[in-house]
Amino acid sequence: MRQDSTSDGTSGRTGRPSRRRFLQLTGAAGAAGLAGCVNSLGGGGNDLADTLVIQMEGGSMLEALKSEAFGPFEEEFGASVEVSLRSSQQNGYAKIKAGQAEADMTSVPPFTLYNGTKEGLWSPISTDEIPNYESNVLDPLKNPVFDPGQEVHGIPHAYGTVGMAYNKNELDSPSSWSVTWDGSYEGHVAMEGFGFIRVFTTALEMGMDPNEIGANGSYEENIGKIWDRVAEQQDLVVTNWTSGDEQARLFASEDAWVGEAWGNVIYGAVQEGNDHLGYTIPEEGAYGYTQNHAILNDISETRRKTALEFINFLLRDDILQPVTEKLGLPPATSVTSDEIENLYDYDPRGGKGLKFPDVAYINEHNDEWSQRWEEIRGN
């Protein structure tokens, strides 16, 4: 996983001098000539750490970064990238919280970003420290509701959705969540099996704000209507899935004709030959999430600067485009290509079709929602 440099300062991948070694060899004149093409944060390569350690899981994101970003970053900045593998989000977060994680930065989804911010684990980031954030990141993805407070703690590089998958042999381009309540599809509806998601998507279908259920009327009245609607839908459901593998199997096997799904999972299933599958972000919107990087709060300034440099580098068009094409999720910036626009999670409205979760609101109600959901599932 580590992209090592040789002892003479050359890149082990190409044999060319690393940026750090290049600056040492060429001096100020060489540095001045190089500065215009590296898109760095300034200050030269000698004030960066030799290595940058990122905590993350294995899988498609790691493979995309290894393939398209780690080597070029080392060549340009002279800092190699190492990965501290975690078995799960929960395991990695527990190690960071206990001070047992040897890492400089970490890959975090919305809930982990929120919880770590509240517990003081992430270093606040001034957005002027990452010029490509201000210039490149889509506006709807900036300062999301799940990054609490005035400061920024996570920088997105890709986004995804919990939208609607469907069998094209059974449904003709559905556009609304309401089709998942259509009795014509009894026994062939598949929805995600977590209480807060059942509340979220059902609120969208009913025209409510899932992050403020009591906005138009009382909370008690509106949440009651939501659960009645959820119970009505359950009569049509074949399975409430809880993993990517399970949802892929349900839709690929045609046990499920319509329901919630992760866009990248359905996209992958189609690439494997399941041409009967389609995917859409319904007109009411869909649960949205971002893949983010957060910097740990207790690292040295040199390592923090190296992390900032990597995040800024990742947000460059020439780097993020191939990373996200390989990942199968659309970029958090405006960079695009035919391949990106064909990704199932891609929102042609520039992220405006995504509804991000207010993690504080979900945390406040999650025990209540989980209990009510289990009651409905058990009936």
UniProtKB/TrEMBL annotation:
One of its GO terms (biological process) is polyamine transport. Its main location: periplasm. It holds the Pfam family SBP_bac_8. One of its GO terms (molecular function) is polyamine binding. Keywords: Periplasm, Signal, Transport. Residues 1-15 have a biased composition (Low complexity). GO terms for cellular component: periplasmic space. The keyword Ion transport does not apply. SUPFAM superfamilies: Periplasmic binding protein-like II (SSF53850). It is found in: Periplasm. The keyword Transport applies. Residues 1-20 are annotated as: Disordered. PANTHER family: ABC TRANSPORTER SUBSTRATE-BINDING PROTEIN, SPERMIDINE/PUTRESCINE-BINDING PERIPLASMIC PROTEIN. This is PotD/PotF family extracellular solute-binding protein.
